[in-house]
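Report of the visiting student (M.T.), summer placement. My assignment was to run the structure pipeline on a short list of targets and document each run. The first record concerns Protein S100-P-like.
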Amino acid sequence: MSQLAVAIAILSKTFNDYARKEGKKDMLNKGEVKTLLEKELPGLLQEAKNPGEVDKLIKSLDLDGDSEVNFTEFMALVVRLACAIHFFKI
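After the run finished, the structure tokens were exported:
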């Protein structure tokens, strides 16, 4: 598989691994999102010194307001982070 195909498969598997821990198997609840961010993107939460900022970030991911994060909403975060990294390195 190409690097891009592998990256996409890893993103999908990572989401599913955390989504399957509690509740709906295709959604992340607030706890699952927080655990995913703590384990997979620890630097992101370390920069948020205020716990309210973490809650705000998690709430911002919930684009449809259903109090859960689906795969599309998760990917929106991934895209924002990828763009930030890309433009930072230019």
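The domain at 3-89 is CATH 1.10.238.10 (Recoverin; domain 1). The chain has a mean pLDDT of 88. I thank the supervising group for their guidance throughout the placement.
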